[in-house]
Every structure is written in C-alpha cells, then in structure tokens.
Amino acid sequence: MGDTKGIFISYRRGETAAYAGWLEDTLSQHFGQQKVFRDVDSIEPGLNFAEVIERAVDSCEVLIAVIGENWLTVVDKNDRPRLQNPHDYVRIEIATALKRNIRVIPLLVQGATMPDADELPEDLAPLAQRNAVEARDITWKDDVRRVVATLENVLDSKEEGGRWRAQVGPRLTRLTAAKSAAGPRARPKELRALAITIALVIAAMIFVELILNLF
Predict the structure, then answer these.
(1) Rounded to an integer, what distance in angstroms lies between the CA atom of residue 115 and that of residue 153?
(2) 123 in helix, strand or coil?
(3) 11: helix, strand or coil
(4) Do residues 212 and 150 share a domain?
C-alpha cells in the first residue's frame, strides 16, 4: 500500500459494484493496474479498512465517485441514510478527497442525477459543484473514453509537475545554499539610502568649512 495510487474509484457496494468493476478494468488496461485503487481488490487481508481507505484517497490524484440512482437515499440496517453516518466509508472517501482539494469526478450511472448541496452532509456539500459525467449503459464505452481523456490530462500534468520539481528543485537548493554561503548582501534600496546619507554628510562638512572660512 506504499505505492501512490493515481486513481481512486469510490462506489457503493450492492448498488454500483458492477459499474466500478467495469470502470476499473478499463482504467487498469489504459493506465496500468498499479495506478488504480478499488477497495475490494486493493486492501490486503487484516488491514484496517477505514485507515487504508483514507491513506489511499490522500495519495491519489483523482477520485471517481460512482453515483447510482439510490446513492443518496440508501439506508443501513436501522433504516438510517448511510450518507448521514460520519463513519460511512463512501462518505469518508469523498469527504477526504474534497478536504484535500483532490480532483473529484462524479460518474452518474443508472440514470442518476447530481444531488443538491442541501441534500448532502456538510462535508460532502462541495460535491454538488463538481462537474459530472453521465455514463449510460448503451453508450458506456464512449462515456468512459471522456473520463479517460480527463484523467490523462490530470495525471500528465501531475507527472510533468513532478519532473519539473525534480529537475529544478536541486538547482534552487544549490543556488540558495550558495547565496547563504556568500553572506548577506545589501539591497539596491539600501545602497541608494547609504549613498544619499554619505552625500549629505559630505555636503554638510563642506558647508561648515565655508562658514568657518568666512569668520
């Protein structure tokens, strides 16, 4: 679990597991299996489910929230809405991504629509402002291609930024170290102020000498 996962798939078991599985297959073929995280296949036996989920979400670049028709209203064994439970794993996944400003892509399946902010718990309310992709059964491949294209842009920009930091970072460090070794240097404004002060002192000395010569 130490490797960074590029794409996290969040879904509700028993409702959208099939869609999440199809999506994982497509993304794994395109980006590589090591870049895709889905809880059932990615969590080793004996590990704490919630802790692993949080770490995986925290390390991903993109989270895809698979939202089915009952995603908002599904209840637990006590007939309470699951999303209203702070310990609900789907809520934890998405809330963690939103809190860390990770790209969240809602993927609407089964004819689902995006919920309004006032229908969601406070920590999920920002999800209502995320642009969603509708994936219909009859156009599944084409709709998922749109998701793949978006992911390519996001992951490529992240990798490019990482390469830039790897190349430029050491140079900046060496430059900073060299400046520190050279000691502090006066700034242009400080040099100008010093020059003006010296000029005034010299002018004052000349003026005093002239006055003394007069008497």
Answers:
(1) 26
(2) helix
(3) coil
(4) no
Q: What is the number of residues in the chain?
A: 215
Asked if residue 178 belongs to a domain, the reply is: no
Q: Tell me how many degrees the CA angle 107-113-118 measures, rounded to the nearest 5.
A: 110
Q: pLDDT tens digits, residue range 42-58?
A: 678 888 877 887 888 88
In terms of residue numbers, what domain contains 194?
187-215
27 and 77 fall within a common domain? yes
Q: With respect to residue 31, please indicate whether it lies within any of the assigned structural domains.
A: yes
Q: At what angle do helices 17-31 and 140-182 cross, to 10 degrees?
A: 60
DSSP assignments along 80-134, one per residue: -BGGGSTT-HHHHHHHHHHHTT-EEEEEE-TT--PPPGGGS-GGGGGGGGSPPEE
> Measured between alpha carbons, how far is 61 from 67 in angstroms, rounded to an integer?
19
Q: What is the pTM of this model?
A: 0.69
pLDDT at 181: 58
